[in-house]
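Help: read this over?
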Amino acid sequence: MTGNGKRVLLPAGEGHGCGMAFRLRLDIKAVKPLYAAFFFLALLFMSVNSWAFHDGGVGLCEGCHTMHNSSDNQPITFVGGATQFNAPNSYLLKGSDSSSTCLNCHNTTNPYPTDINVSSPYVSGIGPSQMTPGGDFGWLKHNYSWIASNATTMYSYGYNHGHNIEAADYGYSSVSTTAPGGTYPGQYLGCTSCHDPHGRYREYLSGGTTLAIAAPDLSLNKGLGPIVNSGSYGAAPQTGAAVGVYRLLGGVGYQPVSVPGSYAFANPPPYAVAPLDFNRAESASSTRVAYGQGMGNWCENCHTNVQNDYKHGYYIPPGGSIQQHPMEDYFTSLQINNYNAYVKTGVYSGATATAFTSLVSFELGTNNLATLSQATSSTAGPDANSEVFCLTCHRAHASGWDYAGRWNFIPDYIVYNSGWGIDDGAQSYPDTNEGRTSTEASHAYYGRTPSMFATNQQSLCNKCHYNWFEQRGYFAPSNP
């Protein structure tokens, strides 16, 4: 409020840009104390929703960009001497590159899971701290080594723990030449390779009744209405009012302007709903993202031929011939029964109503947002509509295990002698501990403990296939 009694709204982007949609500039000398108290009370209530920066679409421009290379009256310093107007930062960004700009808000040093953060420092003997469904990029920063039972030195390199994004300000760099099973150039891999920072894709009601996704073409979007809410938490579009898509994912035709060549996406974003408390430990219960339809097909925008890549799509079951693991394919009746019955190695007495674990996720086979919203609090296992997809076994960002696995794909036992670290029951079995402390392994399993599994727990491939492996005395294949 100015001296003449007028209120002035300032965009949050004048600061960091990660907070409220706007801020109040208040001349406390120009108002009575009672009025000032009301203003501060209003600020308190507005801060409750301060996390909704994107809100399903584009956030405030100044949250990510700077017109004059400054923030809060201080010059912005970039890693490597980059400037606003020269590569690699040619887009007036507040970071040296697009991913660094994202991590200005989505990186944290908190030692516990916190809100919207997907990156935290690796802490020796503990690991990174964030437990979002996509995983913490911090796992990319640490290499492990151990002497295997056959006396061979083995390694679990950080770059093999997930997607290697380019984020110079936070110590991340790509090491892949191309996406496995595809041609997307690794040197340009970053947050905006998958997430549209301007949130142009939207869910709307086609013909006023049918849920559909529109690409950011002005002629196509004409009349669909603005994006009025996030598309990640179950909000439904209304006539003349759209919502964003899940996690601002890019769809058909999407390609960041910073990526040269022709790598435009061919598949639309998926339908999915996340719970609001998605970043938390899962020692008491699993965090359930209700994946509906299309997630695996969306991954194929970059990993186009991953199922035809022998390193990722094939395996040989015991006594069988070479097989291709299905993706976006329905569970068979046997697999449904296996999943719902499997509790842990040797225990097959589970019930459908409590069978779900986030360590082995699945798609529900629907785009009904009300159904997906209800499913975020469900513990039910798969049914005839459920499908296996990429994130059944992998995390989208990174994990504490090779290949961004939700569990450790490599050893015969993920728990051995009631332990999984170099400092517990598995210390004598390095094939299981793989150089991790018990705390690191617990963080990689999102706060779970070995006691939640069998004394000698085999691979979670058995959740769907225990009739093939455990009951026949075989171990699941170690190559995903």
